[in-house]
Request: fold
Amino acid sequence: MIEALREFFGFGGYKRPAEGWFSWQHLVFVSSLMLIMIGLAVWLGLRNKHRDEKTKNKVLIVAAIMIDGFELFKLLIIGLRGGNLLLELPLFLCSIPLFAIPMAAFCKGRMKEASLDFVFIFGLLIAFMGTYGAGQNYGCYPVLSFDNVISGITHAISGFAALYIAVAGMVNMKKRNIGISFLILTVFCVLAYIADVLIPYNYMFLMRGDGTPYDIFYNLVNGNRILYPMIVVGLFLVYITVFYLAFFGISKLRTRKRGQG
Reply:
C-alpha cells in the first residue's frame, strides 16, 4: 500500500512507463473528467439559474477554494519530492483561473463582472487545452499519476466555472469591462515575462514556442526578445476581442429572432 502511494505521488520518480499522449488511457481519463465537468456545471447552473445572486455565487466560492486548494497541495508534494518550485509558479496561461475564479467569487462591482467574463472567456479553452492538449504531461507521466490527476482536476474546475457561469446566467460581457479583461491578462503576462527573464524559464511561452504553434511567430521574428513576446501577448488580446465580438454578434442575432417571433 505504501509503495503504491509512493508510486502514485511520484516520490523517487515514476517506475511505470507513460502510456502516452492520445493513448486510450489518456483519452478515457480526460473524457471522464470532461463529462463530470459538463454534467455538474449544467446541473448546478440550471438549478440555480432563477435563484438570487448570493446562491449562484456559492458554487463559485466552492470552485475557487477547490482549485487553489488542489494547486497548493500540488506545490506541497512537489516540494517534498525535491522539485524546483521556481518552475512551478502560477504564471502559465492555465494558471490564470487560480486568480480569476476567486476574483469572480469574492470581488464586487465591475471587478466581479470582469472576472466572471474572464473566466467565461478562457475557462473552457484552458480546460480542453490542459487535458486533451497536454501532450507534454501525458508523454512524461503515467495517466493515473499525481501530476496528471491534479492537473486534470484543476483544468476541469476551470472549465466547470466557465460553463456554470454561462448556464446560471452570470455572464455580463459588458463593453465597459473589456479594458479590465485586457488589464488582467496584461499584468499576468508582465509578471510571467519578469519571471522568465530572472529564473530563466518560459512561462506563457513568452521566451520561445517550445514546439507549439507559437514557433511560427518565433521563427518569423527570428526569436527577437522584444517582438516575439509582444506578438504572444497581442494574440491573447486578439482572442479576447474576437470572443467579445462573437458574443455580441450572437446576442444581436438572438434579439432579432425574438423580435421577429
Remarks:
- DSSP finds ten helices and no strands in the chain.
- Residues 60 and 111 are 15 Å apart (CA to CA).
- The longest helix spans residues 227-260.
- The chain has a mean pLDDT of 93.
